[in-house]
Amino acid sequence: MPPDPRTDAPVSLLRRLHEAYAILPGRERLVADTILNAPAEMAVWSASELAGLAGTSNATVSRLVQRLGYRSFEDARQDARRLRETGSPLFMKGSAPMAASHGEVLRAEAGIIEATLAQLDAEVMQQAARALAEARQVRLLGFRNSRFLADYLTAQLAQLRADVAPLALEGQTLAEGIAGIGQGDVVVLIGLRRRPARFGQLVRLLAERGAKLLLVADKGLREAPAYATWTLTCAVETDLPLDSYVGVMTVLRLLASDTAEALGDAALHHLNEVETLRDTLSELEQAR
To answer: 277: number of CA atoms within 13 Å, CB side?
Structure first.
Protein backbone atom coordinates (compact mmCIF):
# COMPACT_ATOMS: atom_id res chain seq x y z
CA MET A 1 0.00 0.00 0.00
CA PRO A 2 1.75 3.22 -1.12
CA PRO A 3 2.28 5.76 1.67
CA ASP A 4 1.41 9.43 1.52
CA PRO A 5 4.79 11.10 0.75
CA ARG A 6 3.87 14.00 3.04
CA THR A 7 3.34 11.88 6.15
CA ASP A 8 4.72 8.40 5.33
CA ALA A 9 1.30 7.08 6.39
CA PRO A 10 -0.75 4.67 4.23
CA VAL A 11 -3.31 6.40 2.03
CA SER A 12 -6.79 5.39 3.21
CA LEU A 13 -9.48 3.76 1.13
CA LEU A 14 -11.78 6.78 1.39
CA ARG A 15 -9.08 9.20 0.29
CA ARG A 16 -8.22 7.00 -2.69
CA LEU A 17 -11.87 6.89 -3.71
CA HIS A 18 -12.34 10.65 -3.45
CA GLU A 19 -9.13 11.43 -5.33
CA ALA A 20 -9.91 9.00 -8.16
CA TYR A 21 -13.67 9.63 -8.33
CA ALA A 22 -13.64 12.25 -11.12
CA ILE A 23 -11.83 9.95 -13.56
CA LEU A 24 -13.68 6.73 -12.81
CA PRO A 25 -15.59 5.08 -15.70
CA GLY A 26 -19.34 4.90 -15.19
CA ARG A 27 -19.63 1.35 -13.88
CA GLU A 28 -16.63 1.71 -11.58
CA ARG A 29 -18.22 4.89 -10.27
CA LEU A 30 -21.29 2.84 -9.32
CA VAL A 31 -19.06 0.63 -7.18
CA ALA A 32 -17.37 3.68 -5.65
CA ASP A 33 -20.78 5.20 -4.84
CA THR A 34 -21.88 1.96 -3.14
CA ILE A 35 -18.78 2.02 -0.91
CA LEU A 36 -19.03 5.73 -0.13
CA ASN A 37 -22.72 5.41 0.78
CA ALA A 38 -21.99 2.66 3.35
CA PRO A 39 -18.23 2.61 4.02
CA ALA A 40 -18.56 0.48 7.16
CA GLU A 41 -19.95 -2.40 5.11
CA MET A 42 -16.79 -2.54 3.00
CA ALA A 43 -15.11 -4.28 5.92
CA VAL A 44 -17.48 -7.27 5.62
CA TRP A 45 -18.63 -7.35 1.98
CA SER A 46 -17.30 -9.95 -0.42
CA ALA A 47 -16.43 -8.81 -3.93
CA SER A 48 -19.56 -10.56 -5.24
CA GLU A 49 -21.80 -8.86 -2.68
CA LEU A 50 -20.38 -5.44 -3.54
CA ALA A 51 -20.80 -6.10 -7.26
CA GLY A 52 -24.41 -7.17 -6.75
CA LEU A 53 -25.28 -4.10 -4.69
CA ALA A 54 -23.67 -1.83 -7.28
CA GLY A 55 -25.36 -3.64 -10.18
CA THR A 56 -22.02 -4.43 -11.79
CA SER A 57 -19.70 -7.42 -12.12
CA ASN A 58 -16.84 -8.86 -10.11
CA ALA A 59 -14.54 -7.78 -12.92
CA THR A 60 -15.62 -4.16 -12.45
CA VAL A 61 -14.94 -4.35 -8.73
CA SER A 62 -11.52 -5.81 -9.45
CA ARG A 63 -10.70 -3.03 -11.94
CA LEU A 64 -11.70 -0.36 -9.41
CA VAL A 65 -9.61 -1.68 -6.52
CA GLN A 66 -6.61 -2.05 -8.82
CA ARG A 67 -7.12 1.47 -10.14
CA LEU A 68 -7.07 2.63 -6.50
CA GLY A 69 -3.65 1.00 -6.04
CA TYR A 70 -4.61 -2.22 -4.25
CA ARG A 71 -3.31 -5.58 -5.36
CA SER A 72 -6.64 -7.27 -4.67
CA PHE A 73 -10.11 -6.74 -3.27
CA GLU A 74 -8.99 -8.36 0.00
CA ASP A 75 -6.32 -5.66 0.43
CA ALA A 76 -8.99 -2.96 0.04
CA ARG A 77 -11.25 -4.74 2.53
CA GLN A 78 -8.40 -5.03 5.05
CA ASP A 79 -7.87 -1.27 4.70
CA ALA A 80 -11.53 -0.73 5.58
CA ARG A 81 -11.14 -3.01 8.61
CA ARG A 82 -8.15 -0.99 9.81
CA LEU A 83 -10.20 2.20 9.57
CA ARG A 84 -12.94 0.57 11.65
CA GLU A 85 -10.40 -0.46 14.27
CA THR A 86 -9.08 3.11 14.56
CA GLY A 87 -12.58 4.30 15.49
CA SER A 88 -13.55 6.23 12.37
CA PRO A 89 -17.28 7.04 12.78
CA LEU A 90 -17.82 6.30 9.09
CA PHE A 91 -16.75 2.72 9.68
CA MET A 92 -18.72 2.04 12.86
CA LYS A 93 -21.89 -0.06 13.12
CA GLY A 94 -22.43 -0.62 9.44
CA SER A 95 -25.43 1.11 7.92
CA ALA A 96 -27.38 1.37 11.18
CA PRO A 97 -28.75 4.81 12.07
CA MET A 98 -26.59 7.14 14.14
CA ALA A 99 -29.40 7.59 16.68
CA ALA A 100 -29.89 5.18 19.59
CA SER A 101 -32.59 4.70 22.20
CA HIS A 102 -32.10 5.86 25.78
CA GLY A 103 -32.01 2.23 26.90
CA GLU A 104 -29.32 1.32 24.38
CA VAL A 105 -27.16 4.26 25.47
CA LEU A 106 -27.63 3.43 29.16
CA ARG A 107 -26.60 -0.19 28.65
CA ALA A 108 -23.64 0.78 26.48
CA GLU A 109 -22.34 3.41 28.91
CA ALA A 110 -22.71 1.10 31.91
CA GLY A 111 -20.83 -1.58 29.99
CA ILE A 112 -18.00 0.83 29.19
CA ILE A 113 -17.57 1.81 32.85
CA GLU A 114 -17.62 -1.84 33.95
CA ALA A 115 -15.11 -2.88 31.28
CA THR A 116 -12.78 -0.02 32.16
CA LEU A 117 -12.85 -0.58 35.92
CA ALA A 118 -12.43 -4.34 35.47
CA GLN A 119 -9.00 -3.82 33.89
CA LEU A 120 -7.91 -0.97 36.16
CA ASP A 121 -4.81 -1.74 38.26
CA ALA A 122 -5.35 -0.14 41.69
CA GLU A 123 -1.63 -0.18 42.47
CA VAL A 124 -0.80 1.67 39.26
CA MET A 125 -3.47 4.25 40.11
CA GLN A 126 -2.02 4.78 43.58
CA GLN A 127 1.53 5.09 42.25
CA ALA A 128 0.44 7.63 39.67
CA ALA A 129 -1.58 9.58 42.25
CA ARG A 130 1.41 9.76 44.62
CA ALA A 131 3.58 11.00 41.78
CA LEU A 132 0.99 13.68 40.89
CA ALA A 133 0.97 14.76 44.53
CA GLU A 134 4.76 14.96 44.81
CA ALA A 135 5.70 16.31 41.36
CA ARG A 136 7.55 19.59 40.94
CA GLN A 137 4.97 20.48 38.31
CA VAL A 138 2.16 18.64 36.54
CA ARG A 139 1.46 19.17 32.86
CA LEU A 140 -1.43 17.66 30.89
CA LEU A 141 -2.08 17.20 27.19
CA GLY A 142 -4.71 15.70 24.91
CA PHE A 143 -5.66 16.10 21.26
CA ARG A 144 -9.03 16.13 19.50
CA ASN A 145 -11.58 14.35 21.72
CA SER A 146 -8.88 13.70 24.29
CA ARG A 147 -8.44 17.45 24.74
CA PHE A 148 -11.56 18.04 26.84
CA LEU A 149 -10.61 15.08 29.03
CA ALA A 150 -7.17 16.56 29.67
CA ASP A 151 -8.81 19.91 30.45
CA TYR A 152 -11.16 18.21 32.92
CA LEU A 153 -8.33 16.58 34.85
CA THR A 154 -6.33 19.81 34.75
CA ALA A 155 -9.22 21.65 36.40
CA GLN A 156 -9.62 19.01 39.10
CA LEU A 157 -5.92 18.79 40.00
CA ALA A 158 -5.53 22.58 39.98
CA GLN A 159 -7.97 22.74 42.89
CA LEU A 160 -5.74 20.39 44.90
CA ARG A 161 -2.21 21.66 44.30
CA ALA A 162 -0.16 24.39 42.63
CA ASP A 163 1.84 24.14 39.38
CA VAL A 164 -0.80 22.29 37.38
CA ALA A 165 -1.33 23.47 33.79
CA PRO A 166 -1.79 22.35 30.19
CA LEU A 167 1.46 21.30 28.55
CA ALA A 168 0.84 23.68 25.64
CA LEU A 169 -1.11 26.87 26.19
CA GLU A 170 -3.46 28.26 23.54
CA GLY A 171 -1.38 29.61 20.68
CA GLN A 172 1.79 28.00 21.99
CA THR A 173 3.72 25.35 20.07
CA LEU A 174 4.29 21.91 21.54
CA ALA A 175 8.04 22.50 21.46
CA GLU A 176 7.68 25.43 23.87
CA GLY A 177 5.73 23.30 26.30
CA ILE A 178 8.03 20.30 26.06
CA ALA A 179 11.12 22.45 26.62
CA GLY A 180 9.93 23.25 30.15
CA ILE A 181 9.62 19.59 31.16
CA GLY A 182 12.34 17.81 33.14
CA GLN A 183 13.27 15.69 36.12
CA GLY A 184 10.73 15.79 38.94
CA ASP A 185 7.78 16.58 36.66
CA VAL A 186 4.78 14.43 35.77
CA VAL A 187 3.10 14.67 32.38
CA VAL A 188 -0.38 13.23 31.89
CA LEU A 189 -0.96 12.46 28.22
CA ILE A 190 -4.44 11.35 27.15
CA GLY A 191 -4.35 9.60 23.80
CA LEU A 192 -7.57 7.86 22.80
CA ARG A 193 -8.00 6.39 19.36
CA ARG A 194 -7.99 8.59 16.28
CA ARG A 195 -4.81 10.08 17.67
CA PRO A 196 -2.83 12.60 15.60
CA ALA A 197 0.04 11.42 13.44
CA ARG A 198 3.39 10.95 15.22
CA PHE A 199 1.71 10.58 18.60
CA GLY A 200 4.26 7.91 19.48
CA GLN A 201 7.09 10.31 18.70
CA LEU A 202 5.64 12.82 21.15
CA VAL A 203 5.51 10.15 23.88
CA ARG A 204 9.17 9.30 23.28
CA LEU A 205 10.22 12.94 23.37
CA LEU A 206 8.47 13.48 26.70
CA ALA A 207 10.02 10.32 28.16
CA GLU A 208 13.46 11.49 27.07
CA ARG A 209 13.04 14.70 29.09
CA GLY A 210 13.31 12.65 32.27
CA ALA A 211 9.77 13.35 33.47
CA LYS A 212 7.42 10.63 34.66
CA LEU A 213 4.72 9.99 32.07
CA LEU A 214 1.17 8.85 32.80
CA LEU A 215 -0.52 7.65 29.62
CA VAL A 216 -4.31 7.28 29.48
CA ALA A 217 -5.25 5.40 26.32
CA ASP A 218 -7.41 2.73 24.71
CA LYS A 219 -6.31 -0.81 23.95
CA GLY A 220 -5.37 0.09 20.38
CA LEU A 221 -2.26 2.02 21.36
CA ARG A 222 0.77 -0.18 20.68
CA GLU A 223 4.33 1.17 20.96
CA ALA A 224 3.84 4.29 23.08
CA PRO A 225 3.09 2.52 26.42
CA ALA A 226 6.65 1.15 26.41
CA TYR A 227 7.91 4.70 27.04
CA ALA A 228 5.37 5.60 29.74
CA THR A 229 5.92 5.24 33.47
CA TRP A 230 2.30 4.15 33.91
CA THR A 231 -0.48 3.35 31.45
CA LEU A 232 -4.19 3.34 32.25
CA THR A 233 -6.16 1.53 29.55
CA CYS A 234 -9.80 2.53 29.12
CA ALA A 235 -12.60 0.98 27.07
CA VAL A 236 -14.15 3.33 24.51
CA GLU A 237 -15.87 1.13 21.91
CA THR A 238 -19.50 -0.02 22.03
CA ASP A 239 -21.92 -1.41 19.45
CA LEU A 240 -23.32 2.11 19.04
CA PRO A 241 -21.90 4.74 16.68
CA LEU A 242 -19.17 6.99 18.08
CA ASP A 243 -16.84 6.17 20.95
CA SER A 244 -17.81 6.57 24.59
CA TYR A 245 -15.66 8.41 27.14
CA VAL A 246 -17.57 7.68 30.34
CA GLY A 247 -15.00 5.07 31.32
CA VAL A 248 -12.18 7.57 30.87
CA MET A 249 -14.05 10.19 32.91
CA THR A 250 -14.55 7.65 35.68
CA VAL A 251 -10.84 6.85 35.75
CA LEU A 252 -9.87 10.54 35.78
CA ARG A 253 -12.28 11.22 38.63
CA LEU A 254 -10.79 8.35 40.62
CA LEU A 255 -7.31 9.61 39.82
CA ALA A 256 -8.14 13.08 41.14
CA SER A 257 -9.63 11.55 44.28
CA ASP A 258 -6.56 9.36 44.84
CA THR A 259 -4.31 12.38 44.31
CA ALA A 260 -6.25 14.34 46.93
CA GLU A 261 -5.78 11.46 49.35
CA ALA A 262 -2.05 11.32 48.60
CA LEU A 263 -1.74 15.07 49.20
CA GLY A 264 -3.55 14.82 52.52
CA ASP A 265 -3.84 18.12 54.40
CA ALA A 266 -1.94 19.94 51.66
CA ALA A 267 -4.87 19.41 49.28
CA LEU A 268 -7.32 20.78 51.85
CA HIS A 269 -5.16 23.83 52.51
CA HIS A 270 -4.79 24.55 48.80
CA LEU A 271 -8.52 24.15 48.20
CA ASN A 272 -9.27 26.48 51.13
CA GLU A 273 -7.00 29.08 49.60
CA VAL A 274 -8.69 28.69 46.22
CA GLU A 275 -12.16 29.05 47.76
CA THR A 276 -11.11 32.13 49.75
CA LEU A 277 -9.80 33.77 46.58
CA ARG A 278 -13.02 32.88 44.75
CA ASP A 279 -15.02 34.63 47.46
CA THR A 280 -12.71 37.65 47.35
CA LEU A 281 -13.09 37.90 43.59
CA SER A 282 -16.85 37.07 43.64
CA GLU A 283 -16.21 34.57 40.86
CA LEU A 284 -19.01 32.08 41.48
CA GLU A 285 -22.77 32.39 41.76
CA GLN A 286 -23.93 32.40 45.37
CA ALA A 287 -26.50 29.88 46.62
CA ARG A 288 -29.87 31.41 47.47
So the answer is: 7
| Phi-psi domain of 190 (left: phi exceeds 0; alpha: psi -120 through 50; beta: other) | beta
Say how far apart CA 126 and CA 196 lie, in whole Å: 29
Q: Is the pTM of this model over 0.70?
A: no
CB 181, CB 213: distance < 8 Å = no
From residue 163, how far is each of 85, 138, 188 by CA, in Å?
37, 6, 13
| Contact of 141 with 150, CB cutoff 8 Å | yes
Are the C-beta atoms of residues 51 and 60 closer than 8 Å to each other? yes
191 beta partners? 217
Q: Rounded to whole angstroms, what are the CA distances from 185 to 178, 253, 257, 263?
A: 11, 21, 20, 16
Alpha helix (H) residue ranges in the chain: 13-20, 26-37, 47-54, 58-67, 73-85, 102-118, 122-134, 145-158, 174-179, 199-208, 246-263, 265-281
**Domain residue ranges of the chain, discontinuous segments joined by +:** 13-91, 120-281
The domain defined by 13-91 folds into: Arc Repressor Mutant, subunit A (1.10.10)
* CATH code given to domain 120-281: 3.40.50.10490
Tens-place pLDDT, residues 43-76: 889 999 999 999 999 999 999 999 999 999 999 9
φ/ψ of residue 213, rounded to 5: -120, 120
